[in-house]
Description:
- With 340 residues, the chain is of the alpha+beta class.
- The chain is 19% helix and 29% strand.
- The chain is built from 6 helices and 18 strands.
- It has helices at 88-91, 99-107, 121-130, 177-192, 259-274, 277-286, and strands at residues 3-7, 16-21, 32-33, 36-37, 41-48, 55-57, 111-115, 137-141, 162-170, 198-200, 204-207, 214-224, 230-238, 294-298, 304-311, 317-321, 324-328, 332-335.
- Strand 12 (214-224) and strand 13 form a beta hairpin.
- The longest helix is centred in the middle third of the chain and has 16 residues, at 177-192.
Amino acid sequence: MYGIGTGLFDRIENGVRVDVGLCCGLATKRVGLVGEPDVHRVSVELAVHGDGGDAEFAAGTDDTDGDFASVGDQDFGEHVLLTSPMTPSDATPPPGIFASSRAAAMANGWGFTHVSSTGSTNTELARAARVGANGTELLVTDHQSAGRGRLDRRWEDDRSGQLMFSFRTPVSDDVHVVPGAIAVAAHEAVIAAGVDAGIKWPNDLVVEHGDAPGKLAGMLSEYVDSSPACVVIGLGLNVASAPVEGATSLAANGSSAERDDVLSTLLERLPALLNDPNLVREELRRRSATLGRRVRVERSGGDLVGIATDLTADGGLLLSLDGSQVEVSVGDVIHLRIEE
């Protein structure tokens, strides 16, 4: 399934029409769906009676060929992923664009959805978690109309020139492992694409050498107090283009990698990292573009200037200031030249 589009319909209370796009490749296998072979898209109408809480097919089940398995007594809230209205064209981009990434996610037992456009992938996955979705999911988009970065900064894209996705997974104790694992896996994918980059604290990938230096990627990490609790990590990485001044892209640095190449490599590396918090911390230190550098940390309470010496267990930055160690948990880091 390549996407889900929702739309209200008349006469049925709380009714939703779901447009489901099937992989076109299945058509060659003559997939029969309610007596219609080679279906690319089918609308399924679902409703809840005003006097009860049970969901049912609004138009009945015209199952003349017996193709529907019995649904049974299920909580449809468990299967919710996207909850904001999208048109079918938004929900069903051309199939196969992220074939390798989809396969990597499925191999890990993770859900994978690719849409042409959405407001914010982080917002969508967080909202779904609050209404009962509790699995590990990826949501990939070609365009965000309300993309966000840290401190509610707006994320800019130019449609399909960037890899944009969010990853949601349940967490228990060490919530800091997930964003660190995503950062390390993303860095590995960038190196595999042939670009020399580093991880800049707290959440960026940067290129500092060559003809096209600049910010390559940014992350946004959010904790969701759902049941179970989860974290949602959004990542935007410039692949073919960099729409913001001061940014760079893989292509600008000589890479021919496509979005699917980068994401599939990231997803292949990610499970081992998620299962080994110590490895994540070691790799964050080894790949850091910040440690050992003289930096200025810009904070609302006042800037700090010192040498970045280490990372704490929960992802904070340790600064050496006049012989004292100061831990910083929030702030924007500026890498300084020696004379600064």
